[in-house]
Amino acid sequence: MEALISLLLVTMSSIFLSVSGSNLESFLQCLPQHVQPSNPISDVIFTQNHSNFQSVLNAYIKNRKFLIASTPKPLAILTAKHESHVQATVICAKQAGLELRIRSGGHDYDGLSYISTVPFVILDMFNLRSIDIDIANETAWVQAGATLGELYFKIANTSKVHAFPAGVCHSLGVGGHISGGGYGNLLRKYGISVDNVIDAQLVDVKGRILNRESMGEDLFWAIRGGGGASFGVILAWKIKLVAVPEKVTLFKVDKTLAQGATDVLYKWQYVAPKLPEELFIRVMILVPKEEKTVSPNDCHEMSWGQSTVFFLDSSQNVTSIDVLLQRPTEAKISFKAKSDYVKNVIPREGLEEIWKKMIDNENMFMQWNPYGGRMSEISESETAFPHRAGNLFLIQYYESWPEEGINATDLYTNKLRDFYDSMAPYVSSNPRNTYLNYRDLDIGISSNNQTSLKDAEVYGTKYFNGNFKKLVEVKTRFDPDNFFKNEQSIPPGNLN
Ligand SMILES: Cc1cc2nc3c(=O)[nH]c(=O)nc-3n(C[C@H](O)[C@H](O)[C@H](O)COP(=O)(O)OP(=O)(O)OC[C@H]3O[C@@H](n4cnc5c(N)ncnc54)[C@H](O)[C@@H]3O)c2cc1C
Ligand SMILES: *[C@@H]1O[C@H](CO)[C@@H](O)[C@H](O)[C@H]1NC(C)=O
Ligand SMILES: *[C@@H]1O[C@H](CO)[C@@H](O)[C@H](O)[C@H]1NC(C)=O
Ligand SMILES: *[C@@H]1O[C@H](CO)[C@@H](O)[C@H](O)[C@H]1NC(C)=O
Ligand SMILES: *[C@@H]1O[C@H](CO)[C@@H](O)[C@H](O)[C@H]1NC(C)=O
Ligand SMILES: *[C@@H]1O[C@H](CO)[C@@H](O)[C@H](O)[C@H]1NC(C)=O
Ligand SMILES: *[C@@H]1O[C@H](CO)[C@@H](O)[C@H](O)[C@H]1NC(C)=O
C-alpha cells in the first residue's frame, strides 16, 4: 500500500432534424445576408451531410467519453474565419431559434461547448487565433481560438523576461480558459489570467462588436471569471504581460507514505500558501500502479518558455519549445473531474482517512494547488472569479479510464463522486465552492431550454459566491431573452 506523493512542478439528433429542418434552412439562408461578399461564409459551414462534419466536430472534443454515437450532434458547425462570421452566426441563430454553443479549445469537462439536448449549432473559434504582441507596452491582443501553447510560444519567442499567468495544459483555448478564470504556476505571484486582462472584444446578442469602453465596466467584470458563454462571444482579449527572470527554477520531489509523505503534506498546508509569492509548489497525489523509484530532488534552471514545457512533462530535456505549437488530434483519455477549496488545514488523521479511501482507486489523482500571495490581495468582488483570501488551496480530483462506453463512464464517474462525498468534512461548505473552469454538472443544472433562476442559484453560488447576484444583473441588462445559455449559465431575472 503506497500512495505516492510528489511535491512538484510537473505532473437523438435525427429527431431534431425533422423538428428543426426549417430552422436550419432559415439559419443557413440568413448567414450570407450578414457578411460582405469579400468574406464568404459558405466554406466555413459544415452541416451534417458534409463529408468533413464528423472530423470537424471531433477535432475539438477533448474528452474521449464524448466521442460516441449517442452524444447529441449539432445541426451545423461554423468555423468562423472572420469576425463578421461570428456576428452573422449570432444574429442568424437567434433569428432561427437555434441554440448556440461556442467552442474555442473544446476542453469543457462536461462538453458544454459542443453538446446540447436541444437543436443547436456550434460556433467554432479555432481559426481565429492571431496573437499580436506589443512588447514596448508589455501587452498583447490574443484571439479566442489561440491555444495557451501558441501564446506562450509567441511570448517566449519575443522576450526572455515576459510571461503570462495562465494554465498548464498547452491545448487550452484562450476563449474558454480566460473567461473562466485561468490559473497556473504564476498564480501566487500575479494572480490568475483575468487579473491580467485589460480589454476585450465581444460579440453581443445583437451581433455588435464591443470593447471594454463600449461594453462598460460591468460586462467587462462579468466575462472575467463569470464564463463567456452566458454573455456573448469573446473574440479577443488584450492581456498584460508580466515580468519573469531570464531563468526560473523547477524541482520535483517524490515521497511515498513510507517516506513520511503524510507528514510532509500536513506541513505543506501550513507553508505552501505562505511562502514567498515567487514559489508555487503543487502537490500531485496518486496511487502508483507499480513500484516507483524516487527521483532525485534536482533543481532545473531554464527559461520561462522552457518551463511551460517541462512543467507538463519533466521527463524531457527541453531544448526546443516548438511542441507548444502542436494542436493535438483525437482525444485519447476519458475522464471526469471535480474540485474543492480548502480553507482549514486537514489534520493528520484526516489525511490518513483520505489515503485509505484513495488506495482502492488507481485511476484517480488529486492536485493540490496552493493559493495565498497575490490571490489574497485581490478582493472577492474585483472580478467575477471569487476564490481569493481565506483559501489555502484548490483541489482538483481527476478520474480517467481506458475502457470505452457508457458503462465505464458511469462506473468511474460514480467512483469519483463517492470520493468527493467523502471529502466533505475537509473542504469549504455553504456553499461548497467549485472552480468554474473545472466544470461539474453534478453540482446543479438548469434545463438548458429554460435556465431557471432558482436552479441557477444553486450552482451559481458554488461557482461565484456573492458575485452570482451581480452576474444575474449584468445578464439581465445585456441578454434579457437568455439567448446565450447552457446547463450552467447565468439566467436573467430578479433575485429580490
Ligand atoms: C487537460 C486539461 C488541463 C487543464 N489545465 C488547467 C489549468 O492548468 N488551469 C486552469 O485554470 N484550467 C485548466 N483546465 C480547465 C480549462 O481551463 C477549462 O476547461 C476551459 O474552459 C477550457 O477552455 P477551452 O476554450 O479550451 O474550452 P471550450 O470547451 O471551448 O469552452 C469552455 C467554456 O467556455 C465557453 N467558451 C469557449 N470559447 C468561448 C468564447 N470565445 N466566447 C464565449 N464563451 C466561450 C464554452 O461555451 C464553454 O462553456 C484544464 C483542462 C484540461 C482538459
Ligand atoms: C446538406 O444539407 C443542407 C441543409 O439541409 C442543404 O442546404 C445542402 O444542400 C445539403 N447538401 C448536400 C450536398 O446534400
Ligand atoms: C503604447 O501605448 C501608448 C500609450 O498607451 C500608445 O500611445 C502607443 O501607441 C502604444 N504603442 C503601440 C506600438 O501601440
Ligand atoms: C522564434 O521562432 C522561430 C520559429 O520557430 C525561430 O526560428 C526563432 O529562432 C525564434 N526566435 C527567438 C528569439 O526565439
Ligand atoms: C540537457 O541538455 C543540455 C544541453 O543540450 C545538456 O548539457 C544536458 O546534459 C542535458 N541533460 C540531460 C539530463 O540530458
Ligand atoms: C451495460 O450495463 C447494462 C446494465 O447494467 C448491461 O445490460 C449491458 O450489457 C452493459 N453493456 C456493456 C457493453 O457492458
Ligand atoms: C424543454 O426541454 C424539455 C426536455 O428537455 C421539454 O420537455 C420541454 O417541453 C422544453 N420546454 C420548452 C419551453 O421548450
Describe this protein's structure.
This protein is an alpha+beta fold and 496 residues long. It has three domains: 16-124, Uridine Diphospho-n-acetylenolpyruvylglucosamine Reductase, domain 2 (2-Layer Sandwich), CATH 3.30.43.10; 131-244 and 445-478, Uridine Diphospho-n-acetylenolpyruvylglucosamine Reductase, domain 3, CATH 3.30.465; 253-297 and 331-426, Vanillyl-alcohol Oxidase, Chain A, domain 3 (3-Layer(aba) Sandwich). It is built from 15 helices and 18 strands. α1 packs across α3 (83-96). It binds flavin-adenine dinucleotide and 2-acetamido-2-deoxy-beta-D-glucopyranose (6 copies). One 2-acetamido-2-deoxy-beta-D-glucopyranose (NAG) binds at residues 134, 136-137. One 2-acetamido-2-deoxy-beta-D-glucopyranose binds at residues 117, 447, 449.
In short:
Residues 1-21 form the signal peptide. It is built from 15 helices and 18 strands. With 496 residues, the protein is of the alpha+beta class.
